[in-house]
Specification:
The complex is a heterodimer of chains A (116) and B (118). Chain A has 116 residues and is an all-beta fold. In chain A, 0% of the residues lie in helices and 53% in strands. The chains are: A mainly beta (116), B mainly beta (118). At the A-B interface, β5, β6, β10 and β11 of A face β5, β9 and β10 of B.
Chain lengths: 116, 118
Amino acid sequence: AQKVTQAQTEISVVEKEDVTLDCVYETRDTTYYLFWYKQPPSGELVFLIRRNSFDEQNEISGRYSWNFQKSTSSFNFTITASQVVDSAVYFCALSEAPGGSYIPTFGRGTSLIVHP
Amino acid sequence: DTGVSQDPRHKITKRGQNVTFRCDPISEHNRLYWYRQTLGQGPEFLTYFQNEAQLEKSRLLSDRFSAERPKGSFSTLEIQRTEQGDSAMYLCASSHGARGGSGANVLTFGAGSRLTVL
């Protein structure tokens, strides 16, 4: 069975600080996808990134970067120079491919509060 | 493309009543998912459709819950004889079904339907 653990329930930072959100996953499949979604106070989940299990290359998109390490089953998310608009709940998710269903399982989320 | 629409956005009902939620996915997406989210938790999978076929249901989906997707377009989620424990945000999402494609498995979520059972 697949499982996603986000151990940090809430993180509070001051604007311009860097912050890393942790995600640890469990799976028996060799083929899987990892995701990060953002849920702002307005409530709608927004897709940020998808990685497949065969691509461990780290990715950077503006102030966002992701570190995927299969050796530690982790897919961590770093926000550089955080801004108040980054305040949201961030979810890590995993989807496996038994039978091709690819249904994402979400972690409990990390609430990020960025103070001005 | 107006995204995923859900209706109603909020529903307050008394215990024992039936409620129905509707979801209109992105038109070119053939997969549709229902999730439930309670306060402080991540979305929990309920069920999903590929076109009009309901391919998987979670154990969370008791026999009081039923979902349909006639003609592979919009979907409805009905809860019969609601209980206070059903109070939650019900999220609908849709995606392409192409395995391995660039959009595969990337869910686009609606704003959700918040249910309060008194």
